[in-house]
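Example record used in the benchmark description.
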Amino acid sequence: QVQLVESGGGLVQAGGSLRLSCAVSGSIFSIGTMGWYRRSSGKERELVAIITRGGGTKYGDSVKGRFTISRDYAKNTLYLQMNSLKPEDTAVYYCNADIRMSWDTGQNNYWGQGTQVTVSS
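Model output (structure tokens):
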């Protein structure tokens, strides 16, 4: 089995910073693309940022220049550094990863349970 566990969410004032982490555990052969998504009240889930196995990144337009995605390959952990936070960044943030459990299986897509980020004005 595979688990993705997010941490680091919380309440912060506008202009502040938070760092989210997503630890991947379980039977893992390799991890491909990893990403952060968010869903705020009344809105559909949206892309925040993704990072490929090779380190390529892509950001949602609303977070470009403020958020930075990174990963620690040795620790199987994904990070999201969020700076200059705005009230509109308030949402539940979800970790996502493409994971292969053994050499002879394909990749499956997994989600974490989410962590709440609240930015007060």
